[in-house]
Amino acid sequence: MESKKAELFKVLSVETRIRIIELLKQKGPLGANEMSEMLGVTPSAVSQHLKILKYAGLVRNERKGYWIPYEVDPVALEKCGELLSTVCTCGCEGTGQFREAELNEAEDKVAVLMKYEKELQEELQRVRTRIEDLK
What we know:
The chain has helices at 2-11, 15-27, 32-39, 43-55, 74-86, 100-105, 109-134; strands spanning 59-61, 70-72. It contains seven helices and two strands. It is mostly helical. A hairpin with an 8-residue loop joins strand 1 and strand 2 (70-72). The model has no long low-confidence stretch (mean pLDDT 83). It folds into two domains: 2-77, Winged helix-like DNA-binding domain superfamily/Winged helix DNA-binding domain (Arc Repressor Mutant, subunit A, Orthogonal Bundle), CATH 1.10.10.10; 90-134.
């Protein structure tokens, strides 16, 4: 499982692939030639990036005659976002607990705590919104 996570980071480490995902999210299904023109990248390069993105499960395609439109897989992107949000370098080890080291190093401890309070309120609002959406 860990190697699969590492592979995802490798896939997303290439700027053109990120641009392809952003383009597909904005414009909807597109063919490789259309993306090539919009990105200023050769069609063969776009095709290679799409092949890697498809293998990673981030995009999908379905042939429609001679046209092969690609689109993002929203479920896969959601899982990708969840994975990325679990990567933490602050020392809280994913607990969501306040980072004492950050507080200890801060000159204005009240400002640091107020910023953290705001982040928690925003997260709580996102959770409440999701609950309401599911009802």
